[in-house]
Structure to design on (256 residues):
């Protein structure tokens, strides 16, 4: 599925790369940034958003027009690491390699530098972004960090490693009843209505039980109300209380 999406994406980029862009008026700057290397994509508002190591651009699906976004257009930094589009609230979330954050809403850009500026020891890299309700849930090297999408600020931090320590979190999702976090210690979950999700004791490690392998869980998603986890280069789907092998193929490495 991901290979098909990326193939279509690069087809669009290849076609558009042949289109000549008009020169800017005399006295105005023109950016010359590479756009051929995509590291993350997001879809929403009839657009496909693509993050590159240096900037961000979107392709409008209605007319195939391209909009380029960079520091020249108001972004806080270069070096985009992940993007997410909140289709409910029409907000584009941009995470940079520095752990700085921009949220684009309509024509405004809101910067959230708290994680970048925090002196906490550990890996603050934002690997993945998940939107749910008004919040954004960030999978980081520290654990899960919750961003309030209305107030544009850090709302909470969940250190859910063994004994309450930091743990690299690779992915995050919600199935309506539970929060799921794919971590280097396995797939963990807690009830959405739990009183204190920041308490690691409220999180259950599902790996090494009921058919899900022990060890690193590289991602977790919900598709058609089914929870699917990526572990050991194989996909496992949750059926009731048991995990069943959904897909595996020798010689292939599944990229999230």
């Amino acid at each position: 599925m991901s290979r098909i999406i990326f193939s279509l994406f690069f087809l669009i980029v290849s076609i558009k790369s042949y289109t000549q862009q008009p020169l800017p008026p005399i006295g105005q700057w023109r950016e010359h940034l590479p756009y051929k290397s995509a590291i993350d994509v997001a879809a929403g508002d009839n657009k496909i958003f693509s993050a590159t190591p240096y900037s961000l651009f979107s392709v409008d699906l209605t007319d195939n027009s391209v909009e380029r976004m960079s520091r020249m257009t108001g972004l806080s930094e270069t070096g985009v690491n992940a993007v997410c589009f909140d289709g409910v609230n029409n907000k584009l979330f941009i995470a940079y390699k520095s752990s700085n954050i921009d949220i684009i809403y309509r024509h405004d850009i809101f910067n959230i530098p708290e994680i970048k500026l925090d002196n906490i020891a550990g890996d603050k890299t934002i690997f993945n972004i998940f939107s749910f309700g008004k919040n954004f849930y960030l999978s980081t090297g520290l654990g899960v960090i919750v961003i309030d999408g209305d107030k544009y600020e850090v709302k909470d931090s969940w250190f859910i490693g063994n004994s309450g320590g930091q743990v690299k979190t690779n992915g995050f999702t919600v199935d309506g009843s539970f929060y799921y976090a794919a971590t280097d210690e396995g797939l963990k979950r807690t009830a959405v209505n739990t009183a204190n999700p920041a308490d690691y004791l409220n999180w259950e490690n599902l790996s090494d039980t009921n058919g899900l392998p022990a060890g690193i869980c590289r991602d977790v998603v919900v598709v058609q109300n089914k929870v699917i986890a990526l572990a050991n280069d194989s996909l496992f789907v949750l059926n009731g209380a048991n995990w069943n092998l959904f897909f595996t193929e020798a010689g292939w490495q599944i990229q999230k």
